[in-house]
Amino acid sequence: MGSNQPHLLLVDDDIAAIQVLGRILAHYPEQHFATSGDEALEQARARRPDIILLDADMPGMSGFDLCRLFKRDPALMDVPVIFTTAHPSVAFQVSAFDSGAADFVAKPVAPDHLRSRVRAHLQDTWNPSGQADAAE
């Protein structure tokens, strides 16, 4: 891949929500976007992301279903998935974790919280230089 930056895949059927996430995570310039489950699968298989931010409520394929597909794919199963959704209930969070999510961030997203969760998961899975994330 040749990039010294982690690759983020932001998935939400609401383009405005993707733009907000993209701005919050702007110090990670390798961002790709998808507005449907099928598009997200296609993009993830074409270029394996280092982390996926995923909305649970999408028409057609839900975020839960999409996360399960990611976790069944040998090339993507170890990619951390962080759900971003407006459903704050514990039952909803449990469903996210049951589908294979690594984390859950409620909308409206608190920028510092989202950045810290992304950074924590990237440090667990992506660190080619062996050094801490210098972007912060």
UniProtKB/TrEMBL annotation:
InterPro entries: Bact_response_regulator (IPR050595), CheY-like_superfamily (IPR011006), Sig_transdc_resp-reg_receiver (IPR001789). The modification 4-aspartylphosphate is found at residue 55. Keywords: DNA-binding, Phosphoprotein. One of its GO terms (molecular function) is DNA binding. It comes from the Bacteria. PROSITE patterns: RESPONSE_REGULATORY. PANTHER family: RESPONSE REGULATORY DOMAIN-CONTAINING PROTEIN, STRESS RESPONSE REGULATOR PROTEIN 1. This is DNA-binding response OmpR family regulator.
